[in-house]
Specification:
The complex is a heterodimer. By secondary structure, chain A is an alpha/beta fold. Helix content of chain A is 30%, strand content 25%. Chain A has a single domain, classed as Glutaredoxin (3-Layer(aba) Sandwich). A 5-stranded mixed sheet of chain A has the order 1-3-2-4-5, with helices on one face. The longest helix of chain A is centred in the C-terminal third of the chain and has 11 residues. Chain A starts with 6 loop residues before the first strand and ends with a helix. Chain B is α/β, with parallel strands linked by helices. In chain B, 25% of the residues lie in helices and 27% in strands. In chain B, the strands form 5 sheets. Chain B has a 5-stranded parallel sheet, covered by helices on one side. A 5-stranded parallel sheet of chain B has the order 10-17-11-12-13, covered by helices on one side. In chain B, a hairpin with a 3-residue loop joins strand 6 and strand 7. In chain B, helix 1 packs parallel to helix 2, helix 1 packs parallel to helix 7 and helix 5 runs parallel beside helix 6. Chain B is elongated. Classes of the chains: A alpha/beta, B alpha/beta. Chains A and B meet through helix 2 of A and strand 10 and helix 4 of B.
């Protein structure tokens, strides 16, 4: 269980339902580590500014991550936590590996999810 | 625009800033901590802290969480992930403008912005970040199990993390720019005793190569000019920190390294403006020294606020 202020994706079914809803979604897949905690914090700080985006997290070592985010072609070359994936209309709109600051996340949200 | 008055504003929520907030808030001064990132600062990057007096072993993130809770328990307000829009430190009443929050004012400001990990500044470094290049061994070490990797740097962090990475990697090549290490002798001994570690000294890293993922590091020997290509799938960079003071340029006096200059009471060249922690010009940067700076700055700043309040009556 990730101790963040984000809603968690804990099952593959929940992940599939979210994607099929067509909502704009940002998923931070990580651990409670030094590079991940700041990204959860960034996402939490952006909730009010981007009310149409669902900011979620997913535990990197949980089965759901192995079955979903870690299997995506877009994350195949990633070697840095967290894996952050942005979805629009059920499809990957952008994906990043390792720590990102607020400005970097906002740039992606504005460019890919607006 | 409405201005929100405080007795003291602390810019930065690392150990220096949070300690200052603890002291200021406990002195019953209304205190605001503004952090452009996540409170805890560089402590958050420490997987294990074992030299903070009174605590046997903890993580940096946990220590930061407790410091924040302690500051808030005394009434300090802590806002993270803020976007600073403006800063006026020269007037008697200091002004800080924050996006979505408005303008805050206070007679004293304590600058504790800390530092960021130093990068090599190569385009290829940015390209492979998260695809082979990392700044956190505990976060990303297990991606490189059974692989050949490199560590760049020669300080304590570089050598300690190189040893720790041998738990995963087949081999670790340390590339360092000088002919000697800056790390403590015990850290050097530990690294030299590890059969998985080899050393390339006096190297200037010039490029990272690969397609989707990192495949090699290229460096040049600083004396002979000989180019070395080291095939690695991962590289961890630990070459120190840079002070996060660009936003203060033209406001307070900085050293040629961008560090804030203070006297022993942490006063900058501007009345009512203090600096504490790793962004201050000083020889040693530890959590304990940041805490010390924050304490000194807050105690003196509290006196200034009390005098300012008396004058205002």
């Amino acid at each position: 269980m990730l101790h963040t202020k984000l809603n968690h994706i804990e099952s593959t079914q929940q992940y599939q339902e979210l994607l099929s809803s067509g909502k704009k979604i940002a998923v931070v897949c990580g651990r409670m580590g030094p590079m991940c905690i700041p990204v959860y914090d960034v996402m939490d700080s952006l909730k009010t500014k981007y009310p149409d985006v669902e900011f979620m997290d997913m535990e990197f070592d949980a089965p759901v991550a192995a079955e979903t985010i870690r299997r995506l072609p877009e994350t195949r070359s990633f070697q840095g936590l967290p894996f952050t994936v942005y979805f629009r209309d059920g499809k990957v709109a952008a994906a990043t590996s390792s720590i990102q600051n607020k400005q970097q996340v906002k740039e992606i949200l504005d460019a890919k999810l607006k | 625009m409405e201005t929100h008055p405080y007795d003291a504003i602390v810019l930065g929520g690392g150990p220096a800033g949070l300690t200052a907030a603890i002291y200021l808030a406990r002195a019953r001064l209304s205190t605001l901590v503004l952090d452009t990132g996540t409170p805890g600062g560089q402590m958050n990057l420490s997987h294990e802290v074992a030299n903070y007096p009174g605590v046997l072993v903890t993580s940096g993130a946990e220590l930061g969480r407790i410091m924040r809770a302690q500051a808030e328990s005394f009434g300090a307000r802590v806002i993270s992930q803020v976007d600073l829009l403006g800063l006026d430190l020269r007037s008697e009443l200091k002004l800080v403008e924050v996006e979505d929050e408005g303008v805050f004012s206070a007679p004293v400001v304590i600058l504790a912005p800390g530092g960021s990990p130093r990068t090599l500044g190569l385009d290829s470094e940015r390209r492979f970040m998260g695809r082979g290049i990392s700044y956190c061994a505990t976060c990303d070490g297990d991606f490189f199990a059974g692989q050949d990797i490199a560590v760049i740097g020669g300080g304590n962090s570089a050598l300690e993390e190189a040893v720790s990475l041998t738990k995963y990697a087949s081999s670790v090549t340390i590339l360092h720019e000088f002919d000697h290490f800056q790390a403590h002798p015990w850290a050097v001994e530990q690294a030299r005793a590890n059969p998985k570690i080899r050393f390339l000294m006096e190297q200037m890293v010039t490029d990272f190569e690969g397609d989707e993922r990192l495949a090699a590091v290229t460096s040049i020997h600083k004396l002979t000019g000989k180019t070395v290509r080291v095939p690695v799938t991962g590289t961890f960079i630990f070459i120190g920190y840079v002070p996060r003071t660009v936003f203060l340029s033209g406001q307070v006096e900085l050293s040629d390294r961008g560090e804030i200059l203070t006297d022993e009471r942490m006063r900058t060249n501007l009345p009512g403006v203090y600096a504490a922690g790793d962004a201050r010009a000083k020889p040693y940067r530890q959590i304990t020294t940041a805490v010390s700076d924050g304490t000194i700055a807050a105690i003196h700043a509290a006196e200034v606020v009390e005098n300012w309040k008396k004058k205002a009556k």
